[in-house]
């Protein structure tokens, strides 16, 4: 069992902490993209080196998710979160002192490890901080912090607050998680797993038992496809809009609206997951995302209309992703929840790497921005089918 948090002052305080941590994580995830235009001429980065700089953090996220999930179950959610915040805070600060391309890429990988380690702990804490009927909304509130942090970072880039100093964005990204550690240690219970009654230690391999494999397969497939779409848009949307005829400033504004739409969409997703009519409502949300992606692919290059549809796409995509994050912890019992969510997040990170690579391959072979958006329509619909099948099983735990 765990030290349970109820919907009280302690539970609300826990939700505040995880929301702030997720916002900082979203800022740090976007930091590389914000700093890249300033870093490239300083280090004389080739396109291949720039690609390694971006992908190293994503690779680190995958390893970090596995480690963070194990830490959550072994030493407690608070300990796991504190270790992750310290890890990506220190790595981000160290990036300020990078003197070579190899050092820059290596530190970005370590930052990704810390960022990945935080997420299973954040999901587990949010899910366990409230009563069962509010779990979806609690996880969605936490997840809404990530696009909010990304929007803040994108706004910094648009308004050029960091000037010509690329180091300042990593300095802020490193200090913020370190400043959050003391309040979390002081104000958040340990949430440590403790043996009780018939409960026993569980190996992570048990999620592949015959009675668990169906839930595991559906969850992993949905996460892979969902994050493939999320990260394709996060990485390629500005470039695709520029190719479509918009200026870089207009594309940056669209990226901000995409993230802000994601904040609203995340919160909506949590309410849909907790509602009485969640199955048809969630099905409709996936259809909405598919329609918005198709609309974005078929639109003429009219700025106001494009910005509006981009905001709808961001809201829809992050809505269905927050639903998946809300579902994941409900598929695993408390004693292995961190490990189970960590594995799910790691598999999702494979999708987050596949999405940008797919877009790059499509563009290299002559696909237009419209083609890329339209190809994402069947991907998100398959993701929706898997999610609905998972929810129709009634959140049957992968382990009982």
Description:
It is a single chain. The chain has about 400 residues and is mainly alpha-helical. The protein has one domain: Growth Hormone, Chain: A (Up-down Bundle), CATH 1.20.1250.20. Helices cover about 80% and strands about 0% of the residues. The protein is built from 12 helices and no strands. It has helices at about 10-45, 45-75, 75-95, 100-130, 135-160, 165-185, 210-245, 250-275, 280-300, 305-325, 335-365, 370-390. Mean pLDDT is about 85; it is low at about 195-200.
The N- to C-terminal Cα distance equals 13 Å
Name of the top-level CATH class:
Mainly Alpha
Structural class: mainly alpha
Shape: globular
Radius of gyration: 20 Å
Q: What are the low-pLDDT stretches, counting only 5+ consecutive residues below 50? A: 195-202
Give the tally of structural domains.
Answer: 1
Order of helices and strands: HHHHHHHHHHHH
User: From the 3D coordinates, which CATH architecture would you assign?
Assistant: Up-down Bundle
The CATH homologous superfamily is termed MFS general substrate transporter like domains
Q: Strand percentage, roughly?
A: under 5%
CATH topology: Growth Hormone, Chain: A
Largest sheet: none
Number of strands: 0
- Number of helices, where a helix is a run of at least 4 consecutive DSSP H or I residues: 12
Percentage of residues assigned to helices: over 70%
Keywords: Membrane, Transmembrane, Transmembrane helix
Protein name: AAHS family 3-hydroxyphenylpropionic acid transporter
Membrane topology: Multi-pass membrane protein
Subcellular location: Membrane
